[in-house]
Hints:
Largest sheet of chain A: none
Low-confidence stretches of chain A: none
Number of strands of chain B: 3
Radius of gyration of chain B: 20 Å
Mean pLDDT of chain B: 83
Strand content of chain B: 5-15%
Structural class of chain A: mainly alpha
Number of helices of chain B: 7
Order of helices and strands of chain B: HHHHEHEEHH
Largest interface: A-B, 45 and 39 residues
Radius of gyration of chain A: 19 Å
Shape of chain B: elongated
Largest sheet of chain B: 3 strands, antiparallel
Shape of chain A: elongated
Oligomer: heterodimer
Helix content of chain B: 55-70%
Mean pLDDT of chain A: 84
Strand order of the largest sheet of chain B: 1-3-2
Amino acid sequence: MISALALLSLWLGVIFVLLGALGLARFPDIYNRMQAATKCVTLGVCGIMLGVFLKTGFSALGIKALICALFILITVPVSSHALARGSLIAGVKLWKGTIKDKFTEDRGGKSIIEEEK
Amino acid sequence: MAKRIAYFIAGVIVWVLLSWTLHYQEVLAGVAVSAIAAGMFGGNLPLKASKLLNPVRWFWLLVFIPVFIWQCLKANIDVAMRVLSPGLNLKPGIVKIKTNLKSDIARVFLANSITMTPGTLTVEIKDDNLYIHWIEVRSEDPEECARMIKGPFEFFLARIFD
Lengths: 117, 162
């Protein structure tokens, strides 16, 4: 039973990582890609770690996997925020289908929405 | 000093969990390393030590965890559907929302939680305002945006950290 749950968790994790990678390839600009990379990959890796924990139980390996999952959950949003903020400040353009850009508006710059008009 | 002690205890707990043995040599090494780390960095802990001892805050943290996991799962299914839909179904934009949280640590956790929820990614924090990249802008009105994006998080985080 536990073994089946572990396998299910591992498979769900792998599928979400795959979807995250697919999103990374399909989405149009860095900000949208970051969304796929953060959400799917975090849950995917946490699923894999949970699978390892269920498989091995309360052993050195299982507990390490759980702590890894916790650290990933805390650090991935921070790093994605840093990357997105860095590219925004460095002036990486948003996708042309973007419908609102409050950040550039507030800075007094020319947003991609006005350029399209 | 209280901050350093809290940092030291957390360090020892993580060390013991990671090494997963109570052999005295391992524990002694953990105590030494935690003491050095606490001496060097403990003062930077962005929490008041008195807050760490308040059981009400811990209770709200326990309530917050399932809410967070549920939001996280919803986020993943949402993004997965978008990745798999043929036309991608995107209407992205950057919106600005205002937060009422006061302490830095609470804002950090709000930004992190927002990043983990459906279609939103915090790109910048300036004063009380958060700039959020939203994969599907569903509202132009700042009040409604804030309500939709922050969801239940601010309520819990104010009780845990502020």
